[in-house]
Specification:
The chain is mostly helical. Helix content is 55%, strand content 8%. The strands form two sheets. Strands 1-2-3 form a three-stranded parallel beta sheet.
Length: 330
């Protein structure tokens, strides 16, 4: 019995950080053992907001690939590919654009949010407006059964389902309706207490050295109530404690929480526990990163073979799409 198919992607918009590890990569590694998984580096999507400066794009694509492999993705189990190497994504995007109402794209929540939040880039482009449609093409072209998403990402998947239904209503059943594989993505706070984001410059990157990781945690903000070592605090007010919830054991979480409330431990003591636990998670990742960084030919082979496999799958879908529409057939 054939495995059901999962599709997910990640933008090479900068170096990956531990938020990407917890929010995506670790989950991808688990899924590759249960499903037929297609994971792609969404380099076209990166252009929707970073079209004016592509000088770092090549390095960012390499960083994503290396970190995917370092996190534990296995090219023998999952198909890892570059979006731009599978030109059929663009063809399906064009065909779907013929049937998609503008109002559907304009109502996507993140469209207006980013228009308001991002002030240093001109996002008044079709590429930015149409990125949910390209995203739909990414999913539908592999006729994916599932897409790993958090609850806040469901609107993006729903527009894909709507577009797939609209296509099927016009031309016959070609696309299955992908379902959300609901995953709890814990919020990963950055070194300043805000959500970890390259935009804020508050990230712990997977490419950071052990010394850099240690220094970043040591300088993290903590509970503002604890001005002196003897002041009692509230661990829930400390960004460090929220990282403990992800990287430390339940027992350690309880110990540092109680130590904070009673002032039995200082903030530096709390940070030392987190540093030890985070380094233990990152050490095998660093080891695998170094392995792959030393083998550029292997990286190219992995991306090339994965992209070729993805392309063959997409070619099969596009044959069905053209046939359903009546393109190229007499």
């Amino acid at each position: 019995m054939a495995k059901q198919r999962v599709l997910s992607g990640i933008q090479p918009s900068g170096r990956l950080h531990i938020g990407n590890l917890v929010g995506a990569l670790q989950n991808w590694v688990k899924l590759q053992n249960q499903y037929e998984c297609y994971y792609f580096i969404a380099d076209w999507h990166a252009l929707t907001s970073q079209y004016a400066d592509t000088s770092q794009l090549k390095d960012n694509v390499k960083d994503v690939l290396v970190n995917c492999l370092a996190a534990g993705l296995d090219p023998e189990k999952a198909t890892i590919f570059a979006q731009s190497r599978v030109i059929e994504h663009a063809e399906l995007h064009v065909l779907l654009s013929m049937i998609t109402p503008l109002s559907w794209l304009e109502r996507v929540p993140t469209y207006k949010e980013k228009q308001t939040e991002v002030n240093d880039k001109d996002l008044n482009t079709y590429g930015f407006l149409g990125y949910p449609l390209l995203q739909s093409a990414d999913i539908l072209i592999y006729r994916a059964n599932y897409v790993p998403v958090g609850v806040d990402q469901m609107p993006h998947l729903e527009i894909t389902r709507e577009i797939g239904r609209r296509f099927n209503n016009f031309y016959g059943e070609v696309f299955p309706e992908p379902e959300g594989l609901l995953t709890e993505f814990p919020k990963v706070v950055g070194t300043d207490g805000r959500k970890m984001s390259k935009t804020y410059g508050n990230c712990i990157y997977l490419s950071d050295s052990p010394k850099e990781v240690e220094q970043k945690i040591k300088t993290m903000t903590t509970d503002p109530q604890r001005i002196k070592r003897t002041d009692k605090g509230d661990p829930e007010l400390s960004p460090v404690y929220h990282l403990h919830k992800i990287f430390s054991s339940k027992e350690e979480q309880e110990q540092v929480a109680e130590g904070c409330r009673s002032a039995e431990i200082g903030c530096l003591d709390c940070k030392k526990v987190l540093i030890r636990n985070l380094l233990s998670v990152m050490e095998p990742i660093w080891e695998r990163r170094n392995h792959y960084l030393g083998k550029p030919d292997l990286l190219d082979d992995i991306l090339s073979s994965g992209s070729e496999k993805a392309r063959q799958t997409s070619i099969d879908t596009m044959h069905e799409v053209r046939k359903a529409i009546g393109l190229g057939h007499i």
